[in-house]
Amino acid sequence: MRAFFSFLLITFLFLPDSLSAQQVPPTPPQPPGEAQEDRQPTMNRAAELLRLGNYQQAYEMYQELLQRAPNSVPAAEGAMQALMNLREYEEAEHVYTQFVRKNGEAPQLRVVLAEIYHMKGDQEKAYELWDSIISDDRRNVQLYRRVAESMANRSEHERAARMLIRARELMNNENLFAFDVANLFSGAGLVEESMREFSRLISQNAGYMRTIQRQLSRFSDREYMDEAIISFEEISNEMTPGSEAWASHRYLLIWLYTERELYRRALVTARDLENHIGEREFPVFEVGQNLAALDKFELAQEAFQYYSDRSDHPLFERSREEKARLYVRWAHHLNDNYLDFGGKAEELFAEALGLLGDLKDNRRYQRLPEVLILMGEIALDHKKDAEAARPLLEQLRSVSRTEDHDIQADYLEGRLYIFDGAHSRARVALSRANRKAGTGELAEKTRYFLALNDFYTEDFEYARLQLRSLQRQNTSWYANPALRLRTWLQDGVIQGTVMDELKIYARARYHFDTGNFNESMQELLPIIERTSAPLKTDATLLAARILRDHQPGLGFAVLEQFRLQVTQSSQMERIFWERARLADAIISPDGENPRTRTEALNPELAESVSSLISSSTKEKLILLFSMSTDELFFEGGSTSQTSAEMLEKVTELYEDMILEFPRGFYASPARDRVRELRRLAEAA
C-alpha cells in the first residue's frame, strides 16, 4: 500500500510538467550541465524580460516559443511588442503577417499593429485600424478596453475617451467605462470633462465616493487638483442645495480642499453642508477630527466649538471631549517642540481638565471610560502625579462596559506600575492589554509602552523586538515616540555592544518621565561632561528641558557648551532653537514659560552642572546677558528689565538659526518670533 501511495505522489508531482508539454512542444535535448530553466523558455520568463526592457532577449525567446507553438497569440504579441520597442517596425509587421497567414486574424495582434503604425508616424492608418477592430465586434467590452489602452499607450487619450463614450451610447449603458473615460480625459488634460464623468457617478450613487477619491489621489499635481476643485464647485453650484447629489459633491469638495491643504475652505464648506442636511450627518465633526490629526489646532478647535456652544445638540458632550483631546495634543506639541510662548501649553491643559471634569461628573455620558483614561494620561504625562491617576483607574474599572474599556484599564494599570517601579507587573498588565487589543490604536499604544518599560529596565533587546511591530505604522499616534526610542537604541548599541551611555540615559529618562528631575539630571551629568559620546545630543536636550522652566540661564549654558564642542549632529537645528528660546526666556518677560512643570535643581546639583561649563563660555554669557553667572545659573536666570539692546541680541540668535537652517522645522516660528521681538524692541 505504501508503494502505491508513493507512485501516486510521484505522478502528481510530474503532472503539471506533462500538461504544459501538451501546450508547447519540448525543445531538443541540451548539453548536460545547463540549468533546466535555461533549456526551457517560458512565457513568464519572456514577459519578465520584456517588462525589464531586455527587448532583444525577449524577442528571441518569443520567437523560440512561436516555433514550438505557431498558433500561440501571446507569443506572437510578445514578439511584436519586443520588436516595436526595438524600433524594428518592418520585422514586427512581418511577424504579424506570418501569423495571420497560418492562423487567421487575431484582434489582439491587430491592436499591436495599430500601435506600430502610430509609432511609425502613420497616424491615419492607426486610427483606421483601431476603428476597424471595434467595428468587427461592437459589443465586446473587453475589446474596447484593450483598444483604449492601446490608444492611451500612444498618448491618444482624448480619442480613446470619445470612443468609449460612443460605445456606451451604443450599448445604452451610461455608467459603462465611466472610470476609464474619466481617467483618459485626465490623461488628455481635459480635467473639467473628467470631473463631469465623476460627477455623474456620485450623483447616481454616493457609494462611488471612495473609489473616486482613490482615482483623484493618483494625481498629485497642484494644478490638476485646483482644476478639479473649480470644476466641482461649478457643478455643485448648479444643483439644488440640500439634495443628495449636491451633498455628495460637497463631501467630495471637502476632501479635495483637505488634500490641497485648503483647510479653512474645507471647514466652511462642511458648515454649509451641515446647515442644509440637518442632523442626519455631522461633516463639521469629521473635519474637526481630520484637522486635529493634521495638527491644525486652531481650525480644529473652531470645528468642535460649532457643537460645544449648543447644549441641545446631540454632539454637545462628545465635541467637548474631542476639544479636550485636541487641547492635550496641542499642549504636548508645544511642549515637546518647545514652541510655547507665554504659557499657552499650561492654559490648554487646564482647559482640557476643566472640560473633562464636567464630563466626568455627568453620569449619563456614554463615553465616561474614555474621559477617565484621558484624565489619567494627563495626570501621568503632564502632572507626573501617579496618586491623581489611581482613583481614576478605580472608577474606570467600576464603569467599564466593553472589552476596549477593560483593555484601557489594563493599559492604565500598567502605566501606574511603571511609575511605581514595578516593571514586571507593568509588563504583565501591558501584555494582557496588548494581547486583547490585537490590532489598531490600542494595540499600538500598549506595544509602545511595553517597549518603553523594557527600555527603562535596560532590557534593550526586548525593547527593540516590541518596536518592530510599530515600524510600519507611520500614521500611528505613537509613530514619532517609537522612532525616537528606536533611535536611542540604535545610537546606544554599537556593533552589538550596549554602551554605558545607553544604560545611563535609560535611567535618566525614567526619572524624567516619572517627575524626578533632580535624579534625572544627576544621571545625565556623565554624558554631558564627555566631549563626544553616544546620546550626548539627546542627553543635552533632556537637560535643557529640565532646566528650561526654573533655570533657563543654566540651560542656555549647557546648550552653548554643546554647540562649541560638537560640530555635527542630526539634531543641531533643535539645539539652535532651544538655545534661542532659553535666551528669550531669560531677557523677555513675554517669552517666559510658566514655572510650574518642573522643580529647580537642588543647589549642589546646580553647582555640579555649572562646573561643566568652561570659563570661556561663562564669559560669553556674561557679555551676552549683562548678568553674572550667579544671577544666570542660581538666581532664576531672568531679568525684568528688558532693553532694546538685549532684545536685539536674542533676535540675532534666532537669525543665526534661520541662516543655518533656512528650510528647517523651526524656520517659520523663528521668523515669527524675530518679527515680534523687533516690535518689542521698537517699543522698549
Q: How would you characterize this protein structure?
A:
A two-stranded antiparallel ribbon has the order 1-2. The N and C termini lie far apart (103 Å). The radius of gyration is 34 Å and the shape is elongated. The protein has 684 residues and is mostly helical. Strand 1 and strand 2 form a beta hairpin. The N terminus is likely disordered.
Reconstruct the topology from this structure.
Elements lengths: L1 H22 L12 H4 L3 H9 L3 H14 L4 H13 L3 H15 L3 H14 L2 H13 L5 H13 L3 H14 L7 H10 L3 H14 L4 H9 L4 H16 L6 H16 L3 H15 L5 H11 L3 H12 L7 H21 L7 H17 L7 H14 L4 H14 L3 H18 L2 H15 L3 H16 L3 H9 L10 H14 E2 L2 E2 L1 H14 L3 H13 L6 H12 L4 H14 L6 H16 L15 H9 L3 H11 L3 H6 L9 H17 L6 H17 L1
Antiparallel strand pairs: 1-2
In a nutshell, what does this entry contain?
With about 675 residues, the chain is an all-alpha fold. It is built from 37 helices and 2 strands. β1 and β2 form a beta hairpin.
End-to-end CA span: 103 Å
- In total, the number of strands is 2
Spatial ordering of strands, largest sheet = 1-2
The major beta sheet can be summarized as: 2 strands, antiparallel
Q: Strand-residue fraction?
A: under 5%
* Unreliable spans: 1-39, 590-596
Total DSSP helices: 37
Choose one word for the global shape: elongated
**Helical amount among residues, as a percent range?**
over 70%
Quote the average pLDDT.
Answer: 87
Structural class determined from secondary elements: mainly alpha
- Rg (CA only): 34 Å
